[in-house]
Amino acid sequence: MSNGRPRGSSIFSGAILIFIGTLLLLHNYRGFELGEVFRHWWPLLLIVWGGLKLWERAWGARSGDTSGARVTPGEVFLVLGLMALIGIVITTESVKSHFGEWTNDWDWGNTISSDLDVAPASVPANARITIRGFRGDITVRSGDEPEIRVNGKKNIKSWNETDARRVGEHVGVEIAKNGDGYEVRPTGGGDSRASVDMDVVVPKKSSVTVRSDKGDISVSDMATPVNINGANGDVEIRNTLGDVNIDMRRGDVKVTGTKGDVKISGSGDSVEVVDASGNFTVNGEFVGPIRAEKIAKGVRFVSRRTDLTLTQLAGHMELGSGNLEVVDAPGNLNVRTHEEEVSIDNAGGKVKVDNRNGNIEVRFSSPPKEDIELYNASAAITLSLPESSNFEIVADCHSGDIDSEFEADSLKKTTTSGGDTHLEGKYGNGRGPKITLKTSYGSVSIHKNS
Q1: Cα→Cα distances 166→108, 157, 191, 283, Å
Q2: What pTM, to 2 d.p., does this model score?
Q3: How far apart are CA 131 and CA 175, in angstroms?
Q4: CB-CB contact of 279 with 295 (8 Å)
């Protein structure tokens, strides 16, 4: 008898169907990576399954029937089937992404090019201009005249010139009024053999947005904000006076000489920003190194692995290949990461580093004036300070030793029978910053700079 209690298998089947259905629905929206979610969270299925079985057993113990707590073959087949379904979806998307790029780049014959013929269009000096591309490179430059001019090439891949001319007759570029703005867009882009390289000249004070399906993008010498949406190729921005916003899908990014803020999001390869008068923000997953140099108002980097904030960067920063290096950061520095070798030289403000499974090395060429907090696990901490420094310190090392070249009567080091080490006290005149060092299963070393 069931005694009126609900069947755990029914509850589990319904719950898992709702959960998987929700994941597949979210997968249809751009930005939700089903593969990453499933790779990290698939054990949740087993946790829910086991929890329902424990609930069934507890309920059955009260009613005298524990048969419902057994794992049924139907539940096993349901879980395996749904996991297989998700695996098929993830594999299909991966094949489409990689094989699709490969087929687009395949040389299906000769490339036959011809010049674009586009009549210039007069526009207001501060016009809002959107440039769209399907396949091909886009270059945008500023001009002194209140007009849009388009030059470039249309490229057709074909085995013979006759077929190329036939396809090319329908391919071109038009400048169209679109609401309160203007749009530069290719025509006849449905044929996968066709691509259009555009060199677009716009008024210097116009507001420019570039959208491209595939191809490199270059923008230079603009006096207003520049927006790049859905880039699927390399992006280079040079000498702009306004903010730069870039949404990437694939490719490298390089921004130099901008007077505004720089914000880069999405996913891609390497990122490099040099000489920015505003903020530099990266939010996304980029496999190549992240480089920054001379960022007046600081750096903000957020990914699944790292959360970094620099309030000012006079020198350079590089993050990639398991290493994080920061040199000459006059402002505050706050980073939380894991499995990174962290190296910091000459931070001028407060320093806080929270790391795991990667060494931390912090060096000061002049005595620090702000508090320092270094936290680690399963790796070492090394701190180098000038001998003239003044500081108050608390250092703890679980299952490891603390080695300090600074000696004073007010610095006390103790070691427990279990191998834990503690160092606490003051050095110098006692009016310096507070230093906190904590790690486990690694050493702590405090050196004097030569």
Answers
A1: 16, 12, 11, 44
A2: 0.75
A3: 9
A4: yes
The helix or strand, by DSSP H or E, that contains position 318, with its residue range, turns out to be strand 313-320
| β pairing state of 244-250 and 262-268 | parallel
The domain limits of the chain are: 8-105, 108-224
Q: H-helix or E-strand containing 24?
A: helix 8-27
Q: What is the pLDDT of residues 105-114, one digit of tens each?
A: 444 568 888 8
- Please state the separation of Cα 294 from the chain's center in Å: 20
CA distances from 287 to 98, 102, 214, 250, 321 (A): 16, 20, 19, 10, 9
Residue 185 is predicted with a pLDDT of: 94
**How far, in Å, CA of 146 to CA of 164, rounded?**
35
Q: What is the pLDDT of residues 256-302, one digit of tens each?
A: 999 999 999 999 999 999 999 999 999 999 998 999 999 999 999 99
Query: How large is the angle between the packed helices 43-63 and 8-27, nearest 10 degrees?
Result: 160
Distance CA 52, CA 74 (A): 15
Listed in sequence order, the residues at least 6 apart from 254 whose beta carbon sits closer than 8 Å to its beta carbon are: 234, 235, 236, 237, 271, 272, 273
Q: Which amino acid, residue 353?
A: V
pLDDT classification of 233: cutoffs 50, 70, 90: very high
DSSP of 26-57: HHTSTT--HHHHHHHHTHHHHHHHHHHHHHHH
Greatest mean pLDDT among 94-103, 387-396, 428-437 lies in: 387-396
pLDDT band at 123 (very low <50, low <70, confident <90, very high): very high
Closest listed residue to residue 415, CA positions, set 401, 431, 434 = 401
Cross-strand pairs, 437: 374, 395
Do 200 and 141 contact (CB within 8 A), yes or no? Answer: yes
Token pair of 435 as six digits: 């230093």
- Tabulate helix, strand, coil % of the chain (nearest 5): 20, 45, 35
